[in-house]
Structure formats: C-alpha cells, structure tokens
Amino acid sequence: MADKPSKWITSLREEIRQECGEGWMVRGIGKGLVQKVQLTVRFEDGNRTSIVLGPKAKNNPDFVPWVGTSAGWILKISTDISLIMKSQGKGLAEAYKLVLQKNESGLNGPLDWEQLAKQFKSHKTRNGKKGSRVWNRNYRTPIARTLLILNNESSVCSGYSVLKILVERHGGEPGSASRRLRIQYAAEFLRFAFQNGANRSWLPPEDLNIFIGEKATMDQHSENGNKSEP
Fold this sequence. Notes:
By secondary structure, the chain is mainly alpha-helical. It folds into 2 domains: 8-105, no CATH class; 113-212. Helix content is 55%, strand content 8%. It is built from 9 helices and 3 strands, in the order H-E-E-E-H-H-H-H-H-H-H-H. The chain has a 3-stranded antiparallel β-sheet. It is globular. The termini are far apart.
C-alpha cells in the first residue's frame, strides 16, 4: 500500500487544481531524500507534458526541492505559467520560460524589502478590519524589526542569518510564546519573499526550534538558583 501524501502535498495539489485546472499535477522526482519538483499538465485529449521547476542541479543555490517550504513558490509559479498558457496560447515549456524571463527582469537590482513588506501586509490584511487587527497585534513589530536587519545589516545574506540576529536583539526567554511567535512571523515574511522573487537563500530553516529554544524546567531553575558565585 502506497504511503499517504503529506498534508502539505495534498493541500498544494488541491490549490493547483483550483487555480490552474483539473489536469495540473505536481510531484517530487529523482533519487535520494532531496527531490526535484515536476509539474505535469494533462490536456483534454489525454496527452500530457512535464517540466522540472527551478534549477535542475541540486548544488545550485536556487535549487527548489520537493519540501513543504517550497509549496508557496510552486503554487505561484504554476499559476503564473497557467495564466500565460491560457492568455497567450503557449505550451508548458515556453510559458515557463516566459515566466522565468519576467521574474529575472525584476531581479537585476537589489531586493526591495520595503516593497515586499508592503505586499506581505496587503496579503495579510485582505480580510479587511479583522486582517488589520491581526496585523497590528501580531505582525507589525516583528516585520518592522526584520526590515531593519535586512536594510541595515550588510552581513546578512540568508534567512538563517536574519533570524539569528533577530533572536540576539529581541529574543526573549527561550521557548516563550512571545519568542516563538516573533520568529514564526518573521519566518513567514521570508517565505513570502521567496514566493515573490527572493532567492532561495532567504528561506528560513524548516525547523525553527534552533531559534525558539526550549523553556527551562523547574529543576534547571532550582539548579541555577542554588549555584554559588565562584
């Protein structure tokens, strides 16, 4: 019996069918734990065509693997390809080439993090007053702090380094709810940036616990409290 697909795969496939059509499907291909992303389109006459999304070489820094953090990017680029195929009558491979050219033309200069943050805010507040309240309560401060790091720290070159500095400056108690949410909101913004043109290096690690940490147990508190000064 075949293994049941992960929830993110089932959700992604359903979203692609809704956005692009019933004949659209994605899957991971290749040997090893790290797989490439294959997009397949099945036409009404039964014929089908497939392409690999992203660079084919796994050592390419922009390689997009078949993992949950790539889901948003896969959905967006599949939707963009679908729109070109439908509006311009292009084939799958040609439409994908046009999407890549369009994306690359907008990435010749440095990333406009401020603009990406505005797009992210619009994305999060599209539900009107409810979305605005959630943004002001949860996202506004963490995203503002993240932008300060992205715009002012010349040493940052990856999502990992952004979150590392965020923890160093505004971490809070390891394992605390405030620290966990602060990291999660910043990571969500970095994933959104990747979906909208940022290089894969800006993606945060899949496991955020390295930044969130763990709460100290009562035994640890007692031990620390009983230590005498050297």
